[in-house]
Design goal:
About 45% of the residues lie in helices and about 15% in strands. It is α+β, with helices and mostly antiparallel strands and about 350 residues long.
Length: about 350
């Protein structure tokens, strides 16, 4: 069935109008640094930010509601893909939105009433989007897709654009800077990009003699050797120290890490990036609330609204954020006591929140 959907052609007589290039005004970078999805995820902080956000949303329960009342969870929300768990599907969809700015969900199975039961998440870099007769058309290597079978979820959207935008479109300079700093540090500490000292000779020596002198020095004082050096024949050794630029490497990498956290909206301490400010329990709580309100929640709303379009009319998909926003035990119990005294919650409802039913 999936193959038939991929091979399905859509006949249109209108002239195809290609969308503007997604990176037409993107920032340029200097040097041979290739900024792609793979190189972005090779950055430790970027990888952790994407994994943290996607795993958090993937771990949230999702159910269907009608007029504010929870209904039986439809198959689309229980097991969206046949070869992937629900949490894996939501996490992969979120990753697609975070990196590429777009997620393409293809209807893979419908019931007798025409409602979507299962879907397939496509690789966003394998989908080409164009506009035909004012309507978006989606093409893969196997041909055009029926637009009625494609659910297109966008993250950051510009006016007049059909596709969304991701970090690879408008943040390539910051990403390239972080990659360049990692490459420089790797060369400095692994391949010896900077020599640790210089051997000076008062006499003229040939290239072969210089190589022999270097080899003799390494043999006697290189590696783990830390004994005193004995020099003769007018040879002197001068150790080299890191320059001011090299000494600022750590600060530069810390700044790049903070920039990457800013790009994805993640408090630095959540991904292990050291902070210049002292952290208290209150500050950490505020950062966590900021992360939920301004990073997780907007993405969750986009996913909820998109999946709701595939549900029967009147139903909407809803994430349950209680698992993320759960306070400590004492605070929860005090809140439950207030709710009972006020009369807007029952014992059964509180037991359900605590997972005791």
């Amino acid at each position: 069935m999936i193959g038939d959907l991929l091979r399905r052609n859509v006949e249109q007589r209108a002239t195809t109008i290609e969308l503007p290039a997604r990176s037409i005004t993107g920032q340029s970078i200097f040097g041979p640094i290739n900024v792609t999805r793979d190189t972005l995820l090779s950055d430790v902080v970027a990888n952790r930010c994407v994994a943290l956000i996607s795993d958090q949303l993937g771990s949230l329960p999702i159910h269907a509601e009608r007029n504010g009342e929870t209904v039986e969870t439809p198959p689309l929300l229980a097991t969206p893909e046949v070869d992937r768990t629900r949490s894996e599907f939501i996490a992969a969809l979120t990753t697609s939105l975070l990196i590429n700015g777009n997620a393409y969900v293809l209807a893979a199975g419908r019931n007798t009433l025409g409602f979507v039961q299962t879907v397939m998440l496509l690789d966003p870099e394998a989908v080409q989007v164009s506009v035909v007769g004012g309507r978006p058309q989606y093409r893969t290597a196997r041909g055009l897709l029926n637009p009625e079978d494609v659910l297109h979820v966008r993250n950051f959207v510009l006016p007049g654009y059909v596709v969304g935008m991701g970090p690879l479109d408008y943040n390539r300079q910051a990403i390239a800077q972080s990659i360049a700093a990692d490459q420089y540090a790797g060369q400095a500490f692994t391949t010896g990009a900077l020599p640790d000292g210089v051997l000076h000779s008062e006499n003229e020596i040939t290239s072969d003699q210089a190589q022999d002198l270097k080899a003799a020095w390494i043999a006697g004082n290189g590696g783990r050797q830390r004994g005193p050096a004995v020099l003769s024949g007018g040879v002197k050794y001068s150790p080299l120290e890191f320059s001011s630029v090299d000494m600022e490497l750590l600060d530069s990498r810390r700044f790049n890490a903070e920039q990457m956290c800013t790009l994805f909206g993640v408090p630095p301490h959540l991904v292990g990036v050291p902070s210049q400010d002292s952290k208290t329990y209150s500050n950490v709580q505020q950062d966590s609330q900021f992360f939920v309100r301004f990073t997780l929640r907007p993405l969750a709303i986009k996913i909820e609204e998109a999946l709701s379009t595939l549900l029967p009319r009147g139903q909407r998909a809803t994430f349950n954020f209680d698992a993320v926003l759960r306070a400590d035990t004492r605070t929860r119990y005090e809140a439950h006591e207030i709710a009972l005294r006020a009369g807007f919650m029952t014992v059964e409802e509180i037991r359900a929140l605590e997972g005791l039913t």
